[in-house]
Amino acid sequence: MGEVWDNITSTQPGASGTVVIVTGIVALLLIAWRPVWRQARQVVTIAHEGAHGLIALLVGRQLAGIRLHSDTSGVTVSRGKPDGVGMIAVLLVGYPGPALFGIAAAFVLKQGYAVALLWGLLATLLLLLLQIRNLFGLWSVLAFGAIVFGVSWWGSEQVQSGFAHLLTWFLLLAAPRAVLELQRSRRHGGGRSSDADQLRRLTGVPAILWVGFFGILTLACLALGVAWSGILPS
C-alpha cells in the first residue's frame, strides 16, 4: 500500500506524443463505431448523471438517487425548489458534464498525475455507487469501477498513463456526439423531457439555444484539451 500511495502522490513522466495521438485515435474509433459506441456510451451517461448529482448537492438540493438504464439514458432525482437558479444549474450541467470532467482530467494529466487521476476517479465512482437506485445502474458503475481498479492496481505506469489518456480523450470527444444525438432525437419528436426542453420551460429561452450552448461548451473543452495535449505545433 505504501508503494501505491507513493505512486498516487508522485508525478509521472508525461506521455509521449505517440501515446497521446494513438489513445486519441482509439477513443475516436470507440465513438465512431456504432456497435462499440452503444456500450461505451454508458460511461458518458455515468458522467452526465454524476454531474447532475454533484451540482444538485453544491446548490443545496437533496439528492434522492440516480438511475442508469440499458438504453444509455439516465435520471437524477433531487428534492428542492422546482425552479430557480439552483434547478437551472442542475439541468445546465448534464450534457457538458462529460466534457467538463474530461477537461479536468486533461488538466491533471498535464500536471503529471496520471495515477492520482485514476484513483480519484475510483473514489468518485464509489461515492456515486451510494446514490444508484437500480440494478442496471449498479452493474454499470461496478463494471466501470472494476476496469479502473484493475488498471490502477495491476497496470504498469505506462498502462496507467495510456488508460488515463484514453479515458480523457473519450470524455472530450464523446460529449459533442451526445449533444448531436440530443438534437437528432428532438428533431424526430423525441427528447421533450430533455435537459434542454426543461430549461426552456424554466427560462423561456428556446431549447435549440440551450442545445447550441451545450455544443459550444463541449467543443470548447475539446479544443482546450487538444491544446493541452501537446500534439499541436507550437
UniProtKB/TrEMBL annotation:
Q: Which residues cross the membrane?
A: 15-33, 85-107, 113-130, 137-156, 162-180, 207-231
Cited Pfam families? Peptidase_M50B
Task: Extract the InterPro entries matched here.
Answer: Peptidase_M50B-like
Q: Which UniProt keywords apply?
A: Membrane, Transmembrane, Transmembrane helix
- Can you name this protein? M50 family metallopeptidase
Task: Give the species this sequence originates from.
Answer: Kribbella koreensis
